[in-house]
Amino acid sequence: MWYSGLKIKTFRTGGVHPHEYKGLTEECSIINFPVPQKVIIPLSQHIGKTAKALVKKGDMVSEYQLIGQKDGKISANVHSSIPGKVVDVVMACILNYQVLSVVIQLEGEFKTGNLKKDEWEPLKKEEILKRIESAGIVGMGGAGFPTDFKLSPPPDKKIDTLLVNGVECEPYLTSDYRLMMEKTDEIVEGIKIVKKVLGVRTVFLGIELNKKKAIKKFKDRLTSESNIHVVPLKVKYPQGGEKQLIKAILKRQVPSGGLPFDVGVIVSNIATVYAVREAVLFQKPLTERVVTVAGTIVEKCGNYKIRVGTTVSEVIKEVGIHGPIGKVIMGGPMMGINVSTVEAPVMKGTSGILFFSEKEARSIDYSFYKPCIHCSKCLEACPVNLNPSMLSILGEMEKWEDMKGYHLQDCIECGCCSFVCPSRRPIVGWVKAGKALSA
Ligand code: SF4
Ligand code: SF4
Questions:
Q1: 421 alpha carbon to ligand 2 midpoint, in Å?
Q2: Residue ranges per domain, the chain?
Q3: What is the pLDDT of residue 366?
């Protein structure tokens, strides 16, 4: 085997091995999803303040038009993904919370063919960051951190390494894998752009060993690039967590309450790096992304390039579902969010839409939990050495303030604890409530 002899890295503490289910879509090439007749575009698809609406009901907008202006440093611009008429600017239910959103009905011409390509090498760091900011790029692995802000760490933080996250450790998801397989050169160019902005010499691209073809493709492509290294990683969830990735590749420990820049590292996801290239070379706003649509009840599982704002109901119409739907999850099954309405739209951070039958939904339903039996399985599984059992007991009693004493804020919400819990306790739900209510 070409990979025998390579050092396979991983993090040491905790972790689990859920069934992968990647076979449903890993050989499905990226295809363009049909243009929807209507989009619902939330003005908050990122961490930080909601963007300010720049349009009102009745306005005509063009594709790529700025419709939400970033509000402050930690915020992101939002653009229209289709040309059309604004039929409403309204609080809409996104996943399971309300966000101010722009509803646009398709009308008029597309500009997709009109984008001109620039050379990025002559651009100064400030100009590159301006284009990333202007295009509304945010972390596309799910966190939604504004990328221009992430790539501008405080001056006292000396960054020496860029880690590119090609792990995609969540079951079912293969959208990053397909990007790596089909857009290898573009991703390498995106990595070089981010490397230039950060001024770092060294880049590591972490890929789990269940994506051997992608590892080989990048190894072959990067033979002449002495400062960009491909690192094969053991298949273990949550290998793609920023702190776990840093630990696995660099053996550095991000301190409690700290961020990767505290240990000299910036982590960027594959899809984000790809979007950065499009923003810098073509000045293209982030208005579409690759989404894995999968599930045993889905007729046309695949990896679709879908416009932001396309609703789950449009996706259902296109891919076909057989039998009643028990649950819809946006993201992966471990960290994704249970969608409460089929009018929920695809957002910049939507890596997957998963459909489960009623029977499957029951097996991942944590609403009928039992008391903690103190088996300690969750403690063994927790990748950040927390005591999920105690957090669950305090959460159940609604002692949100007391949860802080058990390092509540260090929980990365990976779901490993609930995954192994024989009492099926919804530990992450309590942690999320604790974070919100004890703040
Ligand atoms: S969700 Fe939080 S408490 Fe549970 S295993 Fe992950 S980090 Fe630990
Ligand atoms: S795994 Fe579940 S039952 Fe076991 S200690 Fe943790 S919370 Fe309690």
A1: 5
A2: 35-106+287-361, 125-282, 377-437
A3: 74
